[in-house]
Specification:
- The chain is an alpha+beta fold and about 300 residues long.
- The protein has two domains: about 45-130, ApbE-like superfamily (T-fold, Orthogonal Bundle), CATH 1.10.3980; about 165-310, ApbE-like domains (T-fold, Roll).
- It has helices spanning about 15-35, 45-50, 60-75, 85-100, 105-110, 145-155, 255-280; strands at about 5-10, 55-60, 120, 125-130, 160-165, 170-175, 185-190, 200-210, 210-215, 220-225, 230, 245-250, 285-290, 295-300, 305-310.
- The protein has a seven-stranded antiparallel sheet, covered by helices on one side. A three-stranded antiparallel sheet has the order 2-4-3, covered by helices on one side.
- α1 (about 15-35) runs antiparallel to α6 (about 145-155) and α3 runs parallel beside α7 (about 255-280).
- The longest helix has 24 residues, at about 255-280.
- The structure holds adenosine monophosphate and magnesium ion.
- The site of magnesium ion has 8 residues, from β9 and α7.
């Protein structure tokens, strides 16, 4: 997954807790090997390598399920979220190595390779195909959340009564830890200088029970082009990387949803992004937005129910 994953688990017996940890990490390892677009033999890499060719590639059912979820969030966000964004992400990765914004022709070419129309998912048969050569899936905006959900499911089955899975900012809090009334989660301060641990917002703690939280931000991973800093998130509609968004934190019932929506809202910006969140039941967001040199906090209408004062 390209990140450090921390799992904390409680169960009735130590042996059950051990079993839950084994199953949780086993799920994380199995799925990240299949869903990463960087691992050369993953299901995603095989689909990308076969782009434009026949027949469709047979993949694990989890990839089909994840792509269906991706398509749903793509439709909900009017195309702001798009798992076929691979060619644009690769273009900016190359551009960042020379520090210059890509040329118009390259940008137009990469943009022409992005879009849901070219992704065929045969869920019943577990087969996937990209219709044009050089199209590429990139699940970086949703796969971590999905893997967290599947790990929590495996741990619950193994007898975990409470657990916290933290995959570098994609988090699920199951139940409540003993002698506590919730899981307490801090939010990174995107304005604070990033160090190994990073600073957190001093006045804010989230309280979670059976909820997921995911944060997308440009403080950790970003590109510098022509001296200007951009996010690693690309707007598939314009083909340009996102600027001016500091971070988006989404709370939802599932981490898949929280992860995808945090990325989608980063693309949509504060106004449209907030409207999307308000339109969805049981989803809340905190948007930290750079405006006029200051960091503005924008909360969805129900976000405050998850806020606690810092002790
Ligand atoms: P996240 O940190 O969850 O916001 O995911 C960011 C990652 O998602 C990027 O590093 C890309 O791999 C991928 N990505 C970039 N732009 C988009 C987009 N518009 N829709 C879906 N995934 C994206
Ligand atoms: Mg995301």
């Amino acid at each position: 997954m390209g990140t450090l994953v921390t799992v904390t688990v409680w169960a009735e017996a130590a042996s059950q807790a051990d079993g839950a940890l084994t199953d949780g990490f086993g799920t994380i390892e199995r799925l990240s090997a299949r869903l990463s677009h960087r691992a050369p033999h993953s299901d995603v890499s095989r689909v990308n390598a076969a782009a434009g060719h026949r027949p469709p590639v047979t993949v694990c059912p989890e990839l089909c399920e994840l792509l269906e979820a991706g398509r749903r969030f793509g439709a909900l966000s009017d195309g702001a979220f798009d798992v076929t964004v691979g060619p644009l992400v690769a273009l900016y990765a190359r551009a960042s190595r020379v520090g210059r914004f890509p040329a118009d022709a390259e940008l137009a070419h990469a943009r022409s390779l992005v879009g849901w129309g070219g992704l065929k998912i045969e869920s019943g048969a577990n087969r996937v195909r990209l219709s044009r050569q050089d199209m590429a899936l990139d699940l970086g905006g949703i796969a971590k959340g999905y893997i967290v959900d599947r790990a929590v499911e495996a741990m619950r089955r193994a007898g975990a009564t409470a657990a916290l899975v933290d995959a570098g900012g994609d988090i699920y809090g199951l139940g409540t830890p003993p002698r506590r009334d919730c899981w307490r989660i801090a939010v990174r301060d995107p304005a604070a200088p990033s160090g190994p641990t990073g600073a957190v917002l001093p006045d804010l703690v989230l309280s979670l029970i059976d909820r997921a939280v995911a944060t997308s931000g440009d403080y950790e991973r970003f590109v510098t082009l022509d001296g200007k800093r951009y996010s690693h998130i690309v707007d598939p509609r314009s083909g340009r990387p996102v600027a001016h968004m500091a971070s988006v934190t989404v709370i939802a019932e599932q981490c898949t949803e929280a992860d995808a929506l945090a990325t989608a809202v980063s693309v949509l910006g504060p106004d449209k992004g907030l409207a999307l969140i308000e339109s969805l039941p049981n989803v809340e967001a905190l948007i930290l937005h750079k405006a006029g040199g200051r960091l503005r906090r924008i909360r969805s209408s129900g976000f405050a129910q998850y806020e606690r004062a810092r002790a």
